[in-house]
Amino acid sequence: MLEYFRNDVLGQGHALDKTYRIIRNDDRAKRWVHGLGKLEFNAHGQSLKMHGTIQDITVHKLAEDQIKHLAFNDPLALDIR
User: Fold this and answer.
1) I want to staple 32 with a disulfide (CB 3.0 to 4.6 A). Which of 7, 55, 61, 81 is the partner?
2) In a domain, 78, yes or no
């Protein structure tokens, strides 16, 4: 994430639009978040600040993973070995 932010957002001036996993410091819980942001520049083209949001999408990500699992795994199939 740091490399993406340095190269694409700060380096190229692109808007931030990224889904990534974080680990909270207080309870070590793994969460999925989606960040959206846009840099604001001064008259000399230097970045001043970023406006945006970070949204916790953990519930959506877990549901997506479950749907993918159900799409490719038949719970009624027999395991013949």
Assistant:
1) 61
2) no
31-65: per-residue pLDDT in tens? 999 999 999 989 998 888 999 999 999 999 999 99
Asked whether residue 79 is domain-assigned, the answer is no
For the whole model, what pTM was predicted? Answer: 0.70
Residue 9 C-alpha from the chain's centroid: 14
22: β partners: 31
Write out the two tokens for 41.
């520049």
Domain count, the chain: 1
Closest CA to 33 of 25, 42, 23, 46: 23
CATH of the domain at 28: 2.10.70.100
CB 9 within 8 A of CB 35: no
